[in-house]
Amino acid sequence: MNRSIPLLSAGLVACLLSTACGAEVDPASRDSGTVTVENCGEEIDYPVPQRAVAYDMSSTEKMFALGLADRMRGVVMPSTAERSVAKSPWKEDYESVETLSTDVLSLEVVLSAKADWVLAGWNSGFSEGRGITPRKLERFGIRSYQHTESCFNYGSDPVSVPPLEALYTDLIDIGKIFRVEQRAREVVRDLKARAAKLREQRPEDPTSVFVYDSGTDKPFTSGNQAAPNAIVSLAGGRNVLSGLEKRWTTVGWEKVVEANPEVITVVDYGDKPVDEKIEFLKSFPPLSSTPAVRNNRFHVLDYGAAVSGPRNVEAAEKLAEYLRSIEN
């Protein structure tokens, strides 16, 4: 994907994509004291992490955007994200941090790494079924932080926060935990300003967009609790499945056909090349009558930009540019 629009504003981009510029930290704060941060409805006291582990691109790129690559013990990065990692604007940071596993997050990997802090999402890293939860990590003296977006699926009293607000919350909270609050505020300020500009440009009649991740029998897509819903809305579109109170979920094709999308945004992720996904959608008979297929309107959304992370606003800028191009 061409990157004609900067990830962050010109004043920040050179520094924030470089580990050399680092994040300024009070040296005394690195080894003393705790800060209290609310995460998924619980107040947690955090000492400064010294051996942080991040799971998947959402966690890892939040760390990189805050200049924290040199504070990480390593990352757990599923092999299905390999193509997206290779295209990341933080490619050099990825190369500087050890990959601990190319599978899912596991307790064994975390313990072997002697981690003291883990960043992941609920059911996207942490899992009761696989035996790695924040409470279980606490038994080993390991603190953790769950993505605010994923709090929607956590516990008996889930927390629902709009995806972009969830992203901003994570960046500010991680900044507090690592004592790089100024850096976090700068990143969030930049993202909010660009998001506001996109909102000002939104058309009165938004384009209907279907977000397609994968699946042939049933499509895997984004509900209103996941980042693509915010990306589509910011770009001047309307997620045809925005009525679903879900994060990522599976639906029946009949819902998609009934929604009659004008554009299909295809997530470039997993073992199947994105071109093959688009060919399937073009050849799938139930979709043949939709404006998106009739007019060959497919937009590619990189996985690293589709998950909750600092590239969400850039993804909205790119989609907005595409939507404007098909209107002209």
Automatic annotation (TrEMBL):
Q: What keywords appear on the UniProt entry? A: Signal
Q: Does the keyword Signal apply?
A: yes
- To which protein family does this belong? Belongs to the bacterial solute-binding protein 8 family.
PANTHER family listed in its UniProt record: IRON(III) DICITRATE-BINDING PROTEIN, VITAMIN B12-BINDING PROTEIN
Q: Which CDD domains match?
A: TroA_a
Q: Which Pfam families match?
A: Peripla_BP_2
**All copies of domain Fe/B12 periplasmic-binding, residue ranges:** 51-328
Q: Which PROSITE patterns match?
A: FE_B12_PBP, PROKAR_LIPOPROTEIN
What start and end residues bound the annotated signal peptide?
1-23
What is the protein name stated in its UniProt record? Iron complex transport system substrate-binding protein
Respond yes or no to whether keyword Signal is given for this record.
Answer: yes
